[in-house]
Structure formats: C-alpha cells, structure tokens
Predict the 3D structure of the following.
Amino acid sequence: MAPIFWVTSASAYHQAVLIAIVPVLCEVFQTDIGTIGVLVGGGLALSAAAVWVWGKIAHRFGLLVSLKAAIVGSAVAVTGLSLSAAATLAGLLPAASGLAAFFAARLLYSASAPAMLPLGQALAHRSSRTAADLLKDIGRLNGFIGVGRVAGNLSLPSVVAIGGAPLWLLSGPLPLYLCALWKLRGAREDGQRPEPEAAPVPRHRTDLPKLATALGIQITTGLSYILLGPLIQSVLQVGAQQSAALTGLCLALALVAGTLAQLGVKQLVGRHLLAGQLIAALLGTGALAWLGFGETFASVLGATILLAMATAVVTSVNTTRALCAAPRADGARAATRVSSVQFAGLALGSVAGGYLGTWDISAAFWLASVCFFLAGLIVPLCGSHEPRPDLQHPKPIAQSDGVST
C-alpha cells in the first residue's frame, strides 16, 4: 500500500498548492479570478464523472493496470501544468496560449488523479481480511490526503520566505509519482483479476443508502467551507483580510484534527462500524448547529474542529461499509461510485453555500446540520446491518510484488 499512500498524498499536496497560488496564476496568465475559478470548478465536475468511469476500467482491465494508468496521466498533467506556467512567465508563450495549455493539463489531471484514492481503497478491499483492517487502510489513505494538504499549505510560505518561485511547487508531486511507478513496476494481481461477468453484478440493497450518505456529508462539507469565512467576518465584525487569516487558521487546525481522526479511525471505531458512524454523525450534527449559534471565534474554532473529526470518521466508515457490502470482484466500481458521488456533493454544497449565504448564514448552518443528521444517521439505518468481521477475501497481491503494507 505504500506507493498508494505516496500518490494520494502527492495529489492532495498539488490541489492545496493550486488553490493557494490562484493570485499568482491570475498575474501570470493576465486573467481574473473568475476564469481560474471556472478552471478549478470545471476540473471538479470532470472528476466526478471521470472517477465513475475509472471503476469500469478497473473492472475490465484490473486494479493495478488502472492505478498505473492514473499515475501516468497525473504525472503527464503535472508536467504540463508546470511547463505551461513557466513558459508563460518566461515569455515563451503568449498569455492566452499558456492559459489554454494550462487548462488542458488541468483537465487531464482532473480526469486522472482523483481515481487513485478509490482504486487504492479497492486494493485494500481485496487484501483486507477483516472489516476492521479495511477501515484502518481506508482511514490511512484518507489521512495521507490530509498530510498532503498540510504539506501543500506549509510549502508556499516557506518557498516565498526564501525567495523561491511558487509556480514550481506545482511540479512537487512528480517525484512521488515516478517513485510509485517504479515501485509498482513488478506488481501483479497473481491471476486474481476477475473475469468479466456475463451479466452486471446486481446492485445491493444497501448501495443507495451509502451513496446518499456520501452525497449528503460532502454537501455539508462544501457548504461549510464556503460559509466559514463570512461567518467569522459576521461574528467578529472584522475586515476581509482579517477574516481570511482567521478562516485559514480554523481550516488548518480542523485539517490537522481530521487527519488525526482518519489515521486513528480503527482505534476510535473498532469493529462496531455502524455504531461508530452514528455517534460521529450526532457529533457532526451538533457541530453544525453550534456554528449556527456561534458568537465568538473560540466557539467557531471548536465547532469547526469537531465537525472535521466527525466528517472524517463518517466518511471513512461509510466507505468501508460500502466496500464490505460489495463482492470482491466489484470493489473498484463500489469505491469509485462512492468517490464520484462525493465530488458531486462537494460541488453542490459549494453552490448551495454561495446562495444560502446571501440569505442567512446561521440558518444555512442549521439546514446543513439537518442534512448531516439525515445523511449520517437516518439514511444508514436503511441498511443498518454490520458487515461480517471476516471478509474472507483471498489474498490477491503478494507481499513481494511491491505493494506491501
């Protein structure tokens, strides 16, 4: 699993850097923030569709082949992003041509990089012997995403402080992608790749509840991220720059807390997946309601941290339960379906947050708490059976194949 940890962390790093250098990109390509916003938002929408397709590709050609293809696509895209920005900055490309090349590379990246997490989850599903082991691997994968984001957020001020060029941070993931490809070069699935079925694997009764949970939780996440800054500005009655700084502090601390919760999710939940998810859903619901009543920065900070930890646990447990309910041969499609719905939820939540924020910020958080309660607690009860402790999967990948845990 080590190469998968590397590439998921590298992709999160790249996304954090891309968001942070938006003002630099506007200056280099002589455009406005709206154009860059369309580029980022368009990439998110493409990811939601592409991840779904990657599940079908993995089911047809195998998980490792698909994972390597996604890594190669991401490496090519990162190279294109870095070179197009550098060439434009150096005057080798006109701004319009450089922006077009950058946009094309971003689309390739959006179609490739998001597939690595669900494909890694599907590999964990195949090799895990128990539901608790699967939860641990999924928590670690999600936790390494948090590590990558923290690294991306910290790298920018560090490079600026020493007088470096922030644009070159875009190429940061490339060494990890290349190392992962080298590590995976001899990996094989030992003949365990399933043959294509004569008929599609039937959808399980619990699939829709788990997809609904993934969608609802990510809607509240996208909404909360959009409204946190305006909430802090409204509560503290400060200017835009001060509220931006305090929002950044809130999100950074919440990210660290969420990452720790992901890395320790097995210890937090144990073997009782459904009970752990329901308790975390209650805490997340309370945190969102608390944000609606927030009157001080300390209360907003505490609620944001609690929400990040609750969301981390609910997300990991829900994905684990979705994979436990799926046949071994259908693990890739199950993981990519959940991931695709999560991307769609983030996009919907961001749009909803923008509209609701013009109405009433406190009421928006209260509505989000209702959504979190329904998605995280009520919906899972529609398929409330616990997965069997022993998944009874044959081990598909040998330890010596370069994909050791």
Q: What stands out?
A: Residues 160 and 166 are 7 Å apart (CA to CA). The longest helix spans residues 131-161.
